[in-house]
Write a structure and sequence with these properties.
This protein is of the alpha/beta class. It has two domains: 168 residues, Ribosomal Protein S5, domain 2; 142 residues, 3-Layer(aba) Sandwich (Rossmann fold), CATH 3.40.50. The chain is elongated, with a radius of gyration of 23 Å. Strand 11 and strand 12 form a beta hairpin. Helix content is 33%, strand content 18%. The strands form five sheets. Strands 1-2-4-3 form a four-stranded mixed beta sheet. It has a three-stranded parallel beta sheet with strand order 5-8-9, with helices on both faces. The termini are far apart.
Length: 334
């Protein structure tokens, strides 16, 4: 039997949809995954098998072939566990509405007991689902608030694999999650560290206010303990509040990087990043075989604080200078 489900993956800070095709045929028991899977995707067969059995469903003792299409793009991560398991159950007739399953994008890592665990990069994936006119997305409940930011998309949060099967079979009704953007902004806004806490330092505060107002770069010099780091940490509190568009951009970057806390919907505060001077080129600027954001990208719409600036490698100086010419803001301190 052949079944097809939809999933999605991130490439940089964007996402693309992919098809998860599952074929169950006669032959000795064998589980094969094709389509340029990485180690985490290849290991999904053991998680999927245990989750299906521990949820009370029968795992077919036949030859199982899983194809992740398009096959010429490398797939990585554990978010394909749920669509692979759903595809096997659909091919095995445990999920009877094979056409209904194609209306949703499935996303999630499976625990051995069948629980659906959170994954990263959900917001770009939800935006891609809306762009491709998918009916909705089925994903871990902890990731649901993040995906619900995208309007016009049914976001179905689940805890276990059996909930997914029952929802797709129509035996249970799970209401799509909806969020209030204004309420999220007011609840998540953190002003625990404020610029008004600083007493004295009038010349330094005046320079920081001018730099923050104009989006300029600032070099702070002084002996240890003078208050450079303390002042820098409070710069986000005097910057304008994030707009909704800026919050979406910032959340996308942090979601893909894996630094976004599951259960949250948006990043409402301007980020403050302070990398150590031993950081690598890729760690600061980003990159890799599968592109990942670096500290410069994670500081987007916020503050990048390069403490002990002369300790950074000369190559990073050049990279930062190139980044500055593109109009980004750095707030280094010596």
């Amino acid at each position: 039997m052949l079944s097809k489900t939809f999933s999605s993956a991130n490439f940089g800070i964007d996402a693309y949809l992919l098809e998860v095709e599952v074929d169950i045929s006669q032959g000795l028991p064998y589980f094969s995954t094709v389509g340029l899977p990485d180690g985490a995707v290849k290991e999904s067969k053991d998680r999927v098998k245990s989750a299906i059995k521990n949820m009370g469903y029968s795992f077919p003792g036949k030859r199982i072939t899983v194809n992740l299409a398009p096959a010429d793009i490398k797939k990585e991560g554990s978010s394909f566990d749920l669509p692979i398991a759903a595809g096997i159950l659909a091919a095995n007739k445990d999920i009877k509405t094979n056409n209904f399953i194609r209306e949703y994008v499935l996303l999630g890592e499976l625990a051995l007991d069948g629980r659906v665990k959170p994954v990263r990069g959900v917001l770009p994936i939800a935006a891609a689902c809306k762009e491709k006119n998918m009916a909705g997305i089925i994903l871990p409940k902890q990731n649901a608030p993040e995906a619900a930011i995208v309007e016009g998309l049914k976001v179905i949060g689940v805890d276990t694999l059996s909930q997914v099967v029952e929802f797709l079979n129509g035996t249970t009704d799970i209401q799509p999650l909806k969020v209030n953007i204004d309420e999220i902004f007011s609840c998540l806004l953190d002003l625990s560290i404020d610029f008004s806490d600083v007493k004295g330092q009038e010349h330094a505060k005046r320079a920081i206010e001018i730099a923050a107002a104009g989006g300029h770069n600032l070099l702070m010099m002084g002996p240890p303990g003078a208050g450079k780091t303390m002042l820098a940490k409070r710069i986000p509190s005097i910057l304008p509040r994030l707009t909704f568009e800026e919050a979406i951009e910032t959340t996308k970057i942090h979601s893909v990087a894996g630094s976004f806390k599951p259960g949250s919907a948006l990043i409402a505060n301007r980020p403050f990043r302070s990398p150590h001077h031993t950081i690598s080129d890729a760690g600061l600027i980003g990159g890799g075989t599968i592109p990942r954001p670096g500290e410069v990208s994670l500081a987007h719409n916020g503050v990048l604080f390069l403490d002990e600036l002369p300790e950074f490698k000369k190559m990073l100086w050049r990279l930062c200078a190139s980044h500055l010419r593109m109009g980004k803001s750095l707030y280094p301190a010596q």
